[in-house]
Amino acid sequence: MSDFSYINIFATKGIEYLIVIGFFILIVPFWKLINPKNSEKRRK
Q1: What pLDDT does residue 23 have?
Q2: How far is CA 25 from the centre of its chain?
Q3: What is 1-44 written as a DSSP string?
Q4: Do residues 28 and 22 make contact, with C-beta atoms less than 8 angstroms apart?
Q5: What does the pLDDT look like over 2-25, one tens digit per residue?
Q6: What is the pLDDT of residue 25?
Q7: Which residues, other chains included, contact 32 with Cβ-Cβ below 8 Å and sequence gap of 6+?
Q8: pTM
Q9: How far apart are CA 40 and CA 37, in angstroms?
């Protein structure tokens, strides 16, 4: 077990979070562009 190494997945707390947050922010307008019928039904 001397070759066992622990990798902390929470050690990389920089640009990765910004990429994920930006991805989800960009998905919202893109989803409204491809699916305009559902947004019109919700407004009525």
Answers
A1: 93
A2: 8
A3: -TT-----TTS--SHHHHHHHHHHHHHHHHHHHH-HHHHHHHH-
A4: no
A5: 677 777 776 667 778 888 899 999
A6: 94
A7: 39
A8: 0.45
A9: 5
